[in-house]
Amino acid sequence: MTDTEATRKNAKHLLYLMVNEELLRAGDGLDAEALGNVLERHGVSTTEQQAALNYACEQGWLQKGENGQLQMTETGFALD
User: Which of 46, 63, 68, 73 is the 20 to 30 Å CA partner of 8?
Assistant: First the structure.
């Protein structure tokens, strides 16, 4: 698996966790620390987390919201 494929997989896993574990919907968000804790519990390293978050934002799946929260977009929610 290439780095890009692994990053994409981690980004999709991130969205899955946001929807199914954190029960977020489009427009809902989490602060970066809480999101990092969720990912750590699932074995995603800090380096992998940042790459996945960057990728998800670049794809329009997440966006930066108020107070530094990362918000799920309609597009990101539809992927899960």
Answer: 68
Q: d(Cα 27, Cα 6) in Å, to the nearest integer?
A: 26
30 beta partners? 70
List the chain pLDDT tens, one digit each, 80 residues: 888 999 999 999 999 999 999 999 999 999 888 888 988 998 988 889 999 999 999 999 999 988 889 999 999 999 86
Q: Is 46 helix (H, G, I), strand (E, B) or coil?
A: helix
Q: Let me know if domain 3-79 sits in CATH 3.40.50.1100.
A: no
Return the domain boundaries, the chain: 3-79
The pTM of this model reads 0.89
